[in-house]
Amino acid sequence: MLLKLLPLLSIISFLFTSQAAHTEELEPEQGQIEDLDDPTALSSFLGIRTGTNGYGAIAQFGFNSPDSAFGHNSFIQFKDDFETLHLRHFSIYKQSGTGLFVDMQRNNANAIPVNRASVGAIQIIPISDKLRINPALLYGETWTDDKQARKTLFPDTSIVTLYTFIRWQVADDWFVNLVPQYTYSVNGRKIRLFELVTQVGHNITKETSMAINTDEDDNFWLTLKHAF
């Protein structure tokens, strides 16, 4: 499936890179690449989560060599009592803030297991020292391993997803993250899905943070992270 996505990814990456060539180079202070709670930051941490959708664990591994023009960020999350696995990866060209975005999820929490895999591009846009809006566009597929459901309810379906990561550092030790996401199917099962995660957090120290999170389904959970 990923081979099918490579032509589209090449086009998207070209468009983003062309536009980025006309923008001002991101300074390290603007990129906030060491920020523990920015989803696009090139930081590393371990954490736990617990709430109405069960307990789980989170981790992120950032790779940011000063000698490389690219930085990398790999995020993994277990939720729904470890029934749902979410993987996300960014590779960011640090000079322009343009990057590759890979997003994958497997959900075993419901009667029918559902998988999703997408690839696309993201652009980091610093509005100010305190506010960043990072749009992303992905193309991929969602499917189920249940053979009976695949024939009747859930055929293999191609999807387009528009993400926006909004990061607002309200004060030195308080922050707000908003992640609206809209998924649209182009064939197979009809999908018109809007999702929104809202996070309000507190930086306890430079290495540790705690946040309250909610989503469009009124789920509520707490996360605790510690950098390494």
Task: Please explain how this structure is put together.
With 228 residues, the protein is mainly beta. The protein is 13% helix and 56% strand. The protein has a single domain (2-227), classed as monomeric porin ompg (Porin). It has helices at 2-20, 28-31, 147-152, and strands spanning 45-51, 54-63, 70-79, 84-93, 98-107, 114-123, 125-126, 131-143, 157-171, 174-185, 192-203, 208-215, 220-227. The longest helix is centred in the N-terminal third of the chain and has 19 residues, at 2-20.
**General shape:** globular
- The named CATH superfamily: monomeric porin ompg
Number of strands: 13
Helix content: 10-25%
Q: Element order, helices and strands?
A: HHEEEEEEEEHEEEEE
Terminal-residue CA separation: 35 Å
Name the CATH class. Mainly Beta
Q: What structural category do the secondary elements indicate?
A: mainly beta
Strand content: over 45%
Q: Can you tell me the CATH architecture?
A: Beta Barrel
Roughly how many Å is the radius of gyration? 18 Å
- In total, how many domains does the architecture comprise? 1
| Poorly predicted segments | 1-33
Q: Count of helices?
A: 3
Task: Give the overall pLDDT as a whole number.
Answer: 87
CATH topology: Porin
Strand order in the sheet with the most strands: 1-2-3-4-5-6-8-9-10-11-12-13
Q: Report on the biggest sheet.
A: 12 strands, antiparallel, barrel
